[in-house]
Amino acid sequence: MRWHGQLMHLLTVGLSMTTPLAHAAEAQVGVRAFAADLLSGAPFIANTDGSPATGFAVASKAVVTTAGNSTSQSEAQANALSGTIKEKASAGVVASSFVVGRNSGASSGGSISGSITLAGPAVPGPATFTALLEGAYSVTGQQTFDNRVGLHYEFIVGTSPQMAGDLLEVCCVAGTFSIPFTWTQLVNPGDAIFFSLFLTTEVFSVAGGSAIDAFNTFKITGVGLPQGYTFTPDAQGFLSQFTSSTAVPEPASWLLTGLGLIVLALARRGTATRKARNS
Question: Given a cut of 60, is residue 71 above it in pLDDT?
Answer without folding.
Answer: yes
